[in-house]
Amino acid sequence: MKKKNKQKSTKLAASDLQKIGFPAGKPLGTALNIIHTYYTDLGKNHQIELLQDVMAAPDQYQLHATLGPLAQAILARNETKPVDLKQERQEYKVYGAEGIQEGAFQQMEIAMCLPVTHAGALMPDAHQGYGLPIGGVLATLNAVIPYGVGVDIGCRMSMSIYDIHHGFLNKNREELKKMLMDNTRFGFTSFKKPMYHEVMDRHEFSEIPIVHELKDRAYQQLGTSGGGNHFVEFGTVEIQDANNEFGLPLGTYLSVLSHSGSRGLGANIAGYYTKVAMDVCRLPLEAKHLAWLDLDTEAGQEYWMAMNLAGDYASACHHQIHQRLSAALGTEPMATIENHHNFAWKEKDAKGREVIVHRKGATPAGKGVLGIIPGSMATPGFIVRGKGDPASLNSASHGAGRVMSRTQAQKTLSLPDVQKQLKKAGIEVIGSSLDEAPMVYKDIHKVMASQEDLVEIVGTFQPKIVRMNGDEKYMEVD
DNA sequence: ATGTCC
């Protein structure tokens, strides 16, 4: 451990430059590149001194053979006018406030002071994130905030309902487990030969340089799920609404539910355009991750196209997951439901004005819009129909929301206890780990109760065989 | 969320 720190400290890092107040964004990135390309032989202290000299008098270094680009980046930044937050923040509606921690409110309040903010709302599963809280909904005017969309662009839910009686599940557990093992991939694993999908032919892959760089890995990761809270699971779904849109008779069916996003593609698009935004939109420190791109600029248009591509890519991954599992089951689904919950949409507000609605961990819930709100690996998820509550900006929660951080879960929970609870509930889990155990989430029933104005329940899903990222034997019971 | 500090 000590060795590692010592090694790290000899190489100039972003943190060293932040300490001396070096401007974040492009100047910092350029500085590191130049130092690590041309000045590796210089000691760290001398490297810092050199950069401080450029920072103090960038105009004198503009034409310097190696330091010129850095000087220009600093000058460009100095020319960018800082953006002030509004003194008075706009009001926003909160659902299920009693279950939301202070950090999420604070972040939402900063977001409500942005000069581009039009309206906002906080969902009952809200918790702290980067910039906008997870569970935050923010409508802006002609501006898109990359971290208002989130890192996993287009992350979504997808469900297939089969004309198979739910009793099939208990009789065929081993076969279904094998289907999940054969047809899903998590984390750093992928399929040997990914299945073709037309999303890979999209022009954005050749027209946007950053997106072009990400194409090969995106192809390799097609049809895969990621890590963290991503899952693919078999379960039962009980259709409770006789007037459901699918024309399904009331009853309980076999179903597949998946949760995942745009993998490396979306994550890298998010990271890249957040940096671009922070270069052109200089916000006070506490708001810096809310940097936005004006949609009338080239960068704004480019992000919008890249974001939409990442969303469609996430959708393609889900479709392939369900396509593979349907083939393994030897049948086609009777009904499918899909919704993203990390995205920005062009929508109209109540007065007909076009706004950019960011939903960062929030389910679209316009009147009559169907969506899926998952609970946890052991608790129910819900097929929901939006009621179109304007105060929520036509949104609802995207899950139960965490009550315990990942590190806290690893520290305080007991694996045998969790295994015992899963066994008792008749739920098998492949992979995953303690930081996704059911008790790290809020009570989904309470969360649903706090958003009765936002959605009505069409059906209830109960997970039975769950696959997540991690050692496949880890959560195994018996 | 992510081959996770440029």
TrEMBL record:
GO terms for molecular function: RNA ligase (GTP) activity. This is 3'-phosphate/5'-hydroxy nucleic acid ligase. It comes from the Bacteria. It catalyses: a 3'-end 3'-phospho-ribonucleotide-RNA + a 5'-end dephospho-ribonucleoside-RNA + GTP = a ribonucleotidyl-ribonucleotide-RNA + GMP + diphosphate. Keywords: GTP-binding, Ligase, Manganese, Metal-binding, Nucleotide-binding, RNA repair. Its cofactor is Mn(2+). It comes from Pontibacter ruber. It is an enzyme of class 6 (ligase). Its EC number is 6.5.1.8.
